[in-house]
Amino acid sequence: MITLALVQTRPRFLDVEANWKAVAGIIERTQADLFVLPELFLSGYTFSSSEEVASAALTHDGRVFDAMREVSAVRGIAICGGYAEAAGDNRQTMYNSAFFIADGAIVANYRKTHLFYRESQFFAPGDSGFATLEYRGTRFGIMICFDWIFPESARTLALMGAQVILHPSNLVLPYCQKAMYARAIENRVFIATVNRVGRETNTLGDDLTFTGQSQLVSPLGEYLLSLAETEEAVQTITVDPVIADNKQLNAFNTILADRRPEMYRVSMQS
Ligand code: ACM
Fold it and tell me: Which of 17, 52, 112, 242 can pair with 144 through a Cys bridge, CB separation 3.0 to 4.6 Å?
């Protein structure tokens, strides 16, 4: 069994210190094995320029990562959330990334594969690929927000053995919370979509309202948690990841094993 805390926040734009402080307070007050946070929860989302992204971008050897590693070590917990990552020799390549920190170490760093809207002006396309990791007997996979609209993202993680998909998000369209219901049942996995709330504008004319409604969907198609649309919220839930290992739908059908990849080849019809 593993206890997840879904932490739905309203970040202060570009105020990394304040955003971390708020989350550190939540972690201090909440009992859970793993805290799941939104995409870009330390910086906010609606950037106007690469300079703004750079001003809030983090490296793994900086103060905020030190603090997150320390909290995870002292509390014996894991934290997964999204951040603007400064990488490369001169720390000038920005990725929209998500970390998984457990017991004082960065266990995984995923760089968003499918960039949404203006993100491609500020971030490099992720080059990490999808991967899974083991923590406290549970196999986790990570995808970020708009990865959802490509069913290949969740399917790839499921084929890699993920029992629980962690999905830090900054959703602005009205579809994802429903779509992830399908992703959970078609792959028979748990999916924790953790979104933010609030509204942001930028100098480029964007005016974005984030849709909240963070949720945990089970492999059997149950909405086990569903948070508010406009308010910050924290909820914990304990799940048995082994439920995701049973891919048997009925006496004749086994999800994943029944796939027929040879039939999925794309060819031009004459
Ligand atoms: C998104 O990928 N933030 C919609």
Answer: 112
